[in-house]
Write a structure and sequence with these properties.
With about 290 residues, this protein is an alpha/beta fold. The chain contains 11 helices and 9 strands. The strands form 2 sheets. Strands 3-2-1-4-5-6-8 form a 7-stranded parallel β-sheet, sandwiched between helices. Strands 7-9 form a two-stranded parallel ribbon. Helix 1 links the parallel strand 1 and strand 2. The N and C termini lie far apart (about 40 Å).
Length: about 290
Amino acid sequence: MKVLVIGGTGHVGSEVVKELRKRNADVRVLVRKPDEKLPPGIEMAVGDLLDPVSIETALDGIDKLYLLNAVASDELTQGLIAYDLAKKRELAHVVYHSVFRVEHFKDVPHFASKLAIESAIRAFDVPFTIIRPNYFFQNDASFKDVLSKMSVYPNPLGPVGISAVDIRDIAEAAAISLVSDEHFGNTYNVNGPTVLSGPKAAAIWSKALGKEIKYAGDNLDAFEEQMRKHAPSWAAFDIRMMFQGYLERGFVADGSDVATLTKLLGHEPRAYEDFVKETVQAWQNLDDPRAAA
């Protein structure tokens, strides 16, 4: 079995590659530039999701596809090109990385793109599995400066919160789905074991850092303005709409979701508290390399 991983150099995709190799799958990763560094034993295909010729070449000799295309202004076009070519080649299986509760967020641009791609995947005969993850724990690893210097947790998660999940659990779910035919036609909601509100996240970071971390609150105008300092305006608006949807419609797992994921993985999903401890330790090791010795 040979798998093409689209998105295999990102945070989630690179973990999917690791999990596939643990299961002895042959893996090819699509990259945009030939100077990308891949793990030993991983084949490289250079291409662009907006270049169908390069994607068709990348699919040559491939049995299965893991499709994770990044949030982009043309995400729908990118995803459909990849899927249409997988359909043309009659691949044995496509595993698509979508998002939790996607049908309830039709006003969020990148969610709407994923919903449309899901719809196309369900309409044709290529065997598929859809992975629908919640918000990633690892997104919060980028908050080192704001947490350590400003003592603020910045994400507007609200008082109810979300069932955030570890990317390693997403990767395991994807790899397990890819290496077995028993997951054809299934959709898996990939959620963490507890609900993470804004105040709760701040309290967890407070304990790990040994100082009070305050929750920044739910001012989405201020959040979007801050986002625009680090991202294109369209992307800042897209992410603002995502968090607005969390606050308005919720992003909490159903009662059966964690049980289903636990059965799929063979272990309970990882806890946010453990991720925070690992992250703080990694920051300390970077600040003082002697601590890692």
